[in-house]
Specification:
Elements (H helix, E strand, L loop, with lengths): L1 E3 L9 H10 L4 E7 L11 H10 L3 E7 L7 H7 L3 E5 L6 H10 L3 E6 L8 H4 L5 E5 L14 H14 L6 E5 L7 H7 L3 E4 L1 H4 L4 H14 L2
Parallel strand pairs: 1-8, 2-3, 3-4, 4-5, 5-6, 6-7, 7-8
Helix pairs in contact: 2-3, 6-7
The chain binds ribulose-5-phosphate and fe (ii) ion.
Ribulose-5-phosphate (5RP) binds next to strand 2, strand 3, strand 8 and helix 8.
Function: Catalyzes the reversible epimerization of D-ribulose 5-phosphate to D-xylulose 5-phosphate.
Pathway: Carbohydrate degradation
Keywords: Carbohydrate metabolism, Isomerase, Metal-binding
Length: 219
C-alpha cells in the first residue's frame, strides 16, 4: 500500500494533485499536520481534511505532528479523517489520545520518532490499528531514510507477533523511494508513505509504478 504524502504536492493546485495520484491507483492519502511546536514547520489543519473529504472517497490518513494532540483530535474526526496517528513524544497521555481516536470510530495510529524505542508498544498494541515508524526525523519532506530504523521495523514486527497483534499494520514515513522501499518492506512494513518520490516527478503514474515495481522486487 503506497500512501502519497500531499506535503510534497503543489499547494497551488491541491485538489488536482490529489486527483492525479488517486487516478494513478492510490487509495490512501497521507496528510501531514505540523504545528510549529512539536516540529519546526507549520502545514495544514482540519479544513484541508474536510475539503478533501468532500471531494474524494479515498482513505484520509492524518499524521498529527502536534503537541497535545488530544486538543485537536475531535476537529480531525469531525473533518472526516479515516486514520489519525499521534506521536508517543507529543503527549504524556498517548494512551488516552489513542483511546479518544478509537472511541470516535476512527482508526488509531501510534507514531515513533527515529530515536524512540518500542517500550510503549506493549501498552497500546491492543488499541491501535497502525504503528507508524518514522524513518526520518519529522518536520520536513525530502529527507534521507535513517538506516538504523530498519532494525526497529524488524523488531516491531516481531514484537507485534509476540503480543498476538500481528494485524497491526506497520507504516513507514520519510525517505521512501524506489531505492529504499524494498528494504523497509523486507523489514516488515506494509504501508509506505511517499512524498517527494511521487510529487517531485511530473509523471505520477510512472513514479508510483516505479515504487510498486521496487516493492515487488524486494531489497
Ligand atoms: O511526516 C512527514 C515528515 O515529517 C512526511 O510524511 C514525509 O517526510 C514524507 O516525505 P518524503 O517522502 O519526501 O520523505
Ligand atoms: Fe507523515
Amino acid at each position: 500500500m503506497i500512501a502519497p504524502s500531499i506535503l510534497a504536492a503543489d499547494f497551488g493546485k491541491f485538489a488536482a494533485e490529489v486527483e492525479d495520484v488517486i487516478n494513478a491507483g492510490c487509495d490512501w492519502i497521507h496528510i501531514d499536520v505540523m504545528d510549529g511546536q512539536f516540529v519546526p514547520n507549520i502545514t495544514m489543519g482540519p479544513q484541508v481534511v474536510e475539503a478533501l473529504r468532500s471531494r474524494f472517497h479515498c482513505t484520509l490518513d492524518v499524521h498529527l505532528m502536534v503537541q497535545k494532540p488530544q486538543q485537536v483530535i475531535p476537529d480531525f474526526v469531525q473533518a472526516g479523517a479515516d486514520v489519525i496517528t499521534i506521536h508517543q513524544e507529543a503527549t504524556p497521555h498517548v494512551h488516552r489520545g489513542l483511546e479518544m481516536i478509537l472511541q470516535s470510530g476512527v482508526k488509531a495510529g501510534y507514531a515513533l520518532n527515529p530515536a524512540t524505542g518500542l517500550d510503549g508498544l506493549a501498552y497500546v498494541a491492543d488499541i491501535i490499528d497502525v504503528l507508524l515508524i518514522m524513518t526520518v526525523n519529522p518536520g520536513f519532506g525530502g529527507q534521507k531514510l535513517i538506516p538504523a530504523t530498519l532494525d526497529k521495523i524488524r523488531a516491531a514486527r516481531q514484537r507485534l507477533v509476540d503480543l498476538n497483534r500481528k494485524q497491526v499494520r506497520i507504516e513507514v514515513d520519510g525517505g521512501i523511494n524506489a531505492e529504499t522501499i524494498g528494504a523497509v518492506k523486507d523489514a516488515g512494513a506494509e504501508i509506505f508513505v511517499a512524498g517527494s518520490a511521487i510529487f517531485a516527478e511530473v509523471d505520477r503514474k510512472k513514479a508510483i509504478g516505479a515504487l510498486t515495481t521496487a516493492l515487488a522486487a524486494g531489497k
